[in-house]
Amino acid sequence: MLTMLTRWFRPPDAKASRAPSSVAFYVAGQAVWTPRDYAALAREGFQKNAVVHRAVRLVAEAAASLPLVLKRRGAELTEHPLLDLLAHPNGRDGGQGFLETVFGHLLVSGNAYVEAVSVDGAPRELHALRPDRMRVVPGQDGWAAAYDYTVGGQTIRFVQGADPVRPILHLTLFHPSDDHYGLSPMEAAATALDIHNAAGAWNKALLDNAARPSGALVAGGDLLTDVQFSRLKEELEANYQGAANAGRPLLLEGGLQWTPLSLTPKDMDFVEAKAAAAREIALAFGVPPLLLGLPGDNTHANYAEANRAFYRQTVIPLVKRTAQALAHWLAPAYGELLHLEPDLDAIEALAGERESLWRRVSAATFLSEDEKREAVGYGRSNLRTPAKGHAS
């Protein structure tokens, strides 16, 4: 194995992400390039489609705003270096902004990469790296042995060093036919996304054409010369197209007649197709259409139920698996078994469910005080360290 190491021209205790540098590490193996185009998905979906944009923002912001609880052997910890690291991951991002970026990458790409910058074996900073710049380098056993990060024509390779924490955490969404990369919800909804974008482009073109279907200019017997045809085309484009010329009458000469082309009810099905495509996009992201403002049963009761379903079926599972991955990745640096989980009590949409649970558990006379605490998600009183002071 050929290994080339370069020296770092910075003080020994300096902290900085390695991604922006021009240093590259080389080990055996070739990068496996993802067949999906992240840039196209981000451009056509998140940047150009309002439904995708709102769905990604809604899930990412809700997941990032959910507080995380750190536990050790079932006891909740209120002070720990890991909590400080997650609250202030680097000099640019706060904890919520950092997690929002990670969740956003995960939803758009199906993959998210987090770099740990360690000093003396302890992680001091966390950085979210762009998925389109990262490539997996498999080892001889087929699993990821290193990660290549390419930017500005320069590549740096992340490999496991002497630090207990691996330099890169790779988060993925389930993909049934790829060993290394996850499947983005946007890719699953690609057909619906194209239909929705095409319908929007059709509407825009119709508005630019005075919000009327196109028509035909029919010459009365004599064929137009090339010069006449070019002049007529230029006059139509200059004087009769666009919103500013809406309703302007045509001035025809030389036996020309205007024949409008009408749309049949079947041709107008694009409106229903666009609405159906929007609902399919929402379905792929796990967001109830009601929360995206799509047509439906817009009542207060339905909205509250949709909000509960959104947290139960989409946000909480996403936060749980991400929190578990972060704890499993970073815990070796502290030499103890740690567990991260979302604080469900902080979700206002689930307050009614929690209240109902507490009322039923409190009324159960056959349960001891410690059993009641465990039933509502708290540890036994003799294991619990001073924490938030929740009442059971």
Largest sheet: 3 strands, antiparallel
Distance between the amino and carboxyl termini: 58 Å
| Model regions low in confidence, pLDDT < 50 over at least 5 residues | 1-12, 22-28, 383-392
Q: Got a strand count?
A: 11
What gross morphology would you assign?
flat
Helix content: 25-40%
Helix and strand element order: HHEEHHEEEEEEHHEHEHHEHH
Q: What's the overall average pLDDT, rounded?
A: 79
Q: How would you classify the helix and strand content by structural class?
A: alpha+beta
Rg measurement, Å = 29 Å
Percent of residues in β-strands: 15-25%
SS element count, helices: 11
Secondary-structure blueprint:
Layout (H helix, E strand, L loop, with lengths): L37 H9 L3 H15 L3 E5 L2 E3 L3 H7 L7 H15 L1 E9 L2 E8 L4 E5 L5 E8 L2 E6 L8 E5 L12 H4 L1 H19 L6 E5 L6 H14 L16 E5 L9 H16 L14 H31 L8 E4 L8 H12 L6 H7 L17
Antiparallel strand pairs: 1-2, 1-11, 3-4, 3-8, 5-6, 6-7, 9-10
Helix pairs in contact: 2-4, 2-8, 2-9, 6-8
